[in-house]
Amino acid sequence: MNKYLIRGLAFTLLGIICIFYGTILMESDNMWYKPLLVVGVISFGFGFITFIYRLFRKIDRNSILDDRKSKKNK
User: How many CB atoms lie within 10 A of CB 21?
Assistant: First the structure.
């Protein structure tokens, strides 16, 4: 597991937890739900983008390695 996968999963889980807790606070008419939902959406988005970035890096790395392997065999 590389750092982008760990960061992506951590921020995504943090976002889900913040959104879940924010909805609980919203039902009890607590005013802290607004900043908590904002933090949850931002951290979920950052985690999701980081996770997707990790996938693109892995695909790019594999294609570079395949290209080098094919050039070496020629």
Answer: 15
